[in-house]
Each structure stands twice: as structure tokens, then as C-alpha cells.
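Q: Here's a chain of 443 amino acids. Please give me its 3D structure as C-alpha cells.
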Amino acid sequence: MKNYKGKKILILGAARSGLSACRLLCREGADVTVYDRKEADRLDIPGDLNGPARFITGSGGEDIDAAAYDAVVTSPGFAPDSPLMKSALKKGVRVISELQVGLEFLPRSTIVAVTGTNGKTTTCSLIQYLTGGKVAGNIGIPLTSETGRIEEGDTVILEVSSFQIPFSPGLAPDVSVLLNIFPEHIEWHGDFGKYWKAKKEMFLRQGPEKQAVINDSVRDIPGFMEGLRHKTVLFSPDRRLDRGVMSSEGGDIIYIGDSGKKEILMEGGRNPLPGAHNMENLMAALAVCRILGIRKIKDLSGFALPPHRLERVAVKNGITYIDDSKATNMHSTLKALQSMEKPVILLMGGRTKGQMHPDLRETVRRKVKKIVAFGESRKEITGHFAGAAEITQAEGLREAVAMASASAAKGDTVLLSPGGSSFDEFTDYKDRGDKFRKWVEEL
């Protein structure tokens, strides 16, 4: 649409991305209404927007008629089956994401878009570190807040989620990245098939001149690779491929192209990142660098993993405390445990969405001394892992930290890798991780 002057726009959600879209659209002369389910006293509405835009909060949204607007800018908090979204879609109103609004105001640039169930933020951060590009999207930086800072010819690295892709029709990146796909966000999408098809939409939009970096494991999903027209570079940390990015027998990260010639992208000794999951992220980032023509790879010693991802927060009395609060699904917890070498006291809980990884129980049996199950899913976790490890329950994370500390011995690792979302007790995974650090420091 780009010309929003005089257009009536409804923005769903008054969090960071919604407010950023509101600011841009008001600047462009749109008639903007923002609706949030929370009451006004629970929102932080900037003074510069309270006037140029109209804000409707709480129960006031019951009378909103989506058909009265030229477009609706949605957010992940409003699933497609929510009343307002159903109404807008049924009445043919244009429904778009904040990301789509940002794309419409983006100068001509090289777009790298990263999606997947796990590892998106780390991979985007790696690509930014290695390329010097600018990062935005689901990483916590709304694209609409960055359009004025992005110049023609820049490399823009976007973290994109399955919530954003279906409502971002202009997202057809120069390079797309698919790190992995596991069952997630089923309560939003409805089933696993709808989840991976939402992600696939981005790849279907790419023409034959575009490129994609895809985890070879994705080919195990029947139908995913059908209909894709882009050039594809596969990668795998644990499979031998005829072509693509993989590990050599000596531990180097290598690329083999159509000619069969081997090219070393990074020597094994230069990778300081912990865990097999970070090897996956690094391979994808190196594949992107190769596509962009970057052959000289910066030393990774200056790269810091984003917070709450296997982050060591303290060592006390010989006990190591690690914050992996970003592990909001069981596959992430599995990867975290696989990277552990010392005996583990595992803090596990939150809202697990009823999904257990089939390999996790055996890994727990081999790696974990004790599970402290906390939060909403503590009984479910106790039932699932009974017999695999000693288990005790805590009502909340603070109690779980104290119990884990009392159980741990010198040389043990206390690992917060919940395997579930944080919303039963915290604002988000960052809040959960910050509280974990605070409570560890208070021990």
C-alpha cells in the first residue's frame, strides 16, 4: 500500500512492534487506531502517540468493526481465529504484519530472512557479526523503527516467525534461511502441518534468482520441498551430504558445490560456540556469508551469544549455574542437555504445551542427576520423567532455584532449561532468565 495518507488503519496490540508501526503510519498521515486487550493502566503508551493515534483498550474493543478500516496491522497476540481477525479476514479487509509495513518503506537492500523453530536470534546475530549488516524483526527490533536508518544497498537481516510470514506478502528475501522445524505454536496454528506451511510461504515467494539455506532434516517433512523455485544450499551438522555445508571428518565446516570440490568455510578449532545446536546455527550463517560473497570470516572470539541461551550466570561453591531460559520447547532442552558434560540438576517447567521430545527421556536418564519441576507443568513433567531421574516439585522458579542449590554438589551444573513457555509465571523468557540470575545471585 505504501501511500497510507488518509487511510484508516487498525493496529492490534500496543506492544513494541505495534507502537513502532503506529509511529511510522502516523508520520505518513494515516488515521490510526490501536487496540490492546489490556486495560490502559497496564500499558505504557508514549505521550507522542497519545493524540496522533486513538487508543482503545480492554473491553472497549468489543464494538470494533474491522470492516470500517482500510487495513489491519496484526500481531502474534491475535491468532487467526480470534474474533477481530476472523471478522477482518471474512470481510476482505487487508490484514498485514508490522514487518510488512516496514518492508513497504525499506530502501532497495539485500534481505536475509531467518526462520525456524529454534536458533533464529543466535543465527541472525552471527550473520550480523560476520557481515556487518543491520538486524531487525522478531529479534526485538521492529523493522518499522529501522527504516530511516537503513540505506540503499545495506544488508538487512530479519528474524521472522511463523506468526509474521503469512501476513507479510512482500517478504520474498534475497536469501532465506530455515534452521529447523519441530512442533511448536500448535495452539496458534492448529496443527503441525499448518505451522510448517506458514513458514514455507516465505520460500514459495522466492523466484529462481533467489537463494535459500535449508537444514537437510527439513527434507524429512513430506511435501515441504515441493514447489520451491529458489536455489538451495543444504546444511547438516550430523549428516554427510553430496552437496552443501557439513562437517568434515577432521571437524572443519566445509562446503561442497556442484563440481564436488571441497571448500573449508571454517577450521574446527576456530568455533568457540557450545553445543550441537550452535553448530547448526553457525553452519547456516557461514552458508549465508558464502552466498553474499564473504570469503574471509571474522574470528568468533569477539562474538557473544544472545542472553538466556546457555549463558553461565554464576559459579558458587564449585556449582555452575546456567541460564537457558530461551529453551521454550522440549527440543531446545534436549540440545542443551546434549551439550552438558558435568552432572546436571535440571530446572524444568513453565507451560510445556503437552509436547515431549521422544529422545529427551533417554538423555535425561544419562545426563541428569535430578529434575526440579516447577510451575504449571510440574505434575506433567514428573509423570513423564518418572524413573528416568530423581524428581522433586516446586511451585515456582524461585523455590526451584533454592531446591536445586541445596541438592547440588561441587562440580555439578544447575541448568535452567525449562522446555516450556514462561507465561504461567513471567512476562516472557527474558523476565524468567533475569529472575533466575537474580535469585542465583541471592543464594
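Q: Can you summarize the key feature?
A: Residues 8-97 form a domain with the Rossmann fold fold (CATH 3.40.50.720).
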